[in-house]
Design brief:
alpha/beta, D-Maltodextrin-Binding Protein, domain 2, 2 domains, 6-stranded mixed beta sheet, 13 helices, 33% helix, 16% strand
Length: 370
């Protein structure tokens, strides 16, 4: 079941590449409660309604793949998926008891909710940008999140590298969030700062039109907009995000405080199903197993309806072991403080709960991937 909780929704196909586990942890469980469900526990006889959200299309891939494969049903969960445009909106809905699960990025609202004791927690990374120069990076694979620039300016030779962005107009989805941080990192790679460009807010699905009509010169974005812009000769990708923010998580799985406290077993089961879905997709994109099947799910559930385009689409690598890399959350937080969106450096332990990821891996076993 799908619905909408926002009038500002936009079809967004996730393209940020995500890690498959591993790396330093440094983030012990921050929540106590009943032990993890037994791996051999029988399927629940009654379905529990769980309300979940993403910003739409493939940002919710863990939902539609899991539903199609029956992963949620097996865990006794009836998933009601809503499209919600932004992270602050999702945090507000979780804090007010209208939403149980969210798949979205980091934002000051997450940290402010922690300061207010609202109980919203990150329970797993979902997607993490991978460095294309990493020797483990699959051969022939292109990353999904890129900086795109106007083809007109690129072909004229005036915008072919990050350093050429000085004085140009750059679109981000919204100010004060992770998108602004990503832009800062991109600019820093060429010795530029945010003050060297003219930043405008344009929602991801509207950015190609803004580039085409000359209102915007560049944008850090992701698939399908990278491929669509190239196919329509509107834009050219010139930088993979993974080159400037390697291993940086850009999407997370969140649980509401109410879900964690009052429906803990259902929450454990929800992350188990989410992890199964992410692993199934990982197999499709990285090893080719079940690829046509997964492409069919994407065609059915997202705005990109041409199966052939998925052959060249940038790949998203998923976090498949419920890992939370708190090093990058701390850097997110510090950036939000720097730009005045947060008043203090909230302890990252107030924002994460690793016990659900630990439980899911205990039940499913560890996934050996990237």
């Amino acid at each position: 079941m799908r619905g909408k909780l926002s009038q500002t929704l936009a079809p967004i196909l996730v393209v940020v590449a995500a890690a498959c586990g591993g790396g330093p942890t440094g983030n012990g469980s921050t929540s106590s409660g009943p032990a993890c469900i037994p791996a051999t526990q029988p399927e629940p006889k009654q379905q529990i309604q769980v309300r979940a959200a993403s910003s739409g299309n493939a940002t919710g891939r863990m939902y539609f793949i899991g539903q199609e494969k029956g992963f949620y049903a097996k865990q006794g969960i009836s998933l009601n998926v809503q499209d919600v445009a932004t992270t602050p909106e999702m945090v507000s809905l979780m804090a007010s008891g209208q939403l149980d699960v969210a798949a979205t990025g980091d934002a000051p609202a997450v940290w402010n909710a922690a300061e207010q004791g609202l109980g919203v927690k990150i329970v797993s990374d979902a997607v993490v940008n991978r460095d294309p120069k990493d020797p483990r990076y699959p051969v022939g694979v292109s990353g999904a999140a890129k900086l795109i620039v106007s083809r007109k300016l690129h072909d004229a030779g005036t915008l072919t590298s990050v350093k050429d962005l000085k004085g140009k107009t750059v679109a981000i989805n919204n100010r004060g969030g992770a998108g602004q941080l990503i832009l800062e990192k991109i600019l820093d790679s060429a010795g530029l700062t945010l003050s060297d460009v003219n930043i405008v807010e344009v929602l991801y699905p509207d950015q190609l039109a803004a580039i085409a009509n000359g209102k915007v010169d560049a944008a850090p974005t992701f698939e399908p907009f990278v491929s669509l812009g190239a196919a329509q000769r509107i834009s050219v990708p010139i930088l993979d995000w993974g080159e400037v923010i390697p291993n940086w998580p850009t999407q997370f799985i969140y649980f509401s405080g109410n879900f964690i406290k009052n429906q803990r077993e259902a929450a454990q089961r929800a992350l188990i199903a989410i992890m199964q879905a992410l692993r199934y997709e990982e197999d499709a994109w990285v090893t080719g197993a079940n690829r046509d099947e997964v492409v069919g799910y994407y065609v059915q559930h997202t705005a990109l309806k041409t199966p052939a385009l998925y052959r060249t689409l940038g790949v998203a690598f998923n976090e498949t072991n419920g890992f939370i890399d708190t090093r990058y959350l701390q850097q997110d937080r510090d950036f939000f403080v720097k730009i005045g969106q947060l008043k203090g450096k909230t302890d990252v332990a107030r924002v994460v709960d690793t016990s659900f990821g630990d439980c899911a891996v205990k039940v499913l076993g560890r996934y050996n991937g990237f």
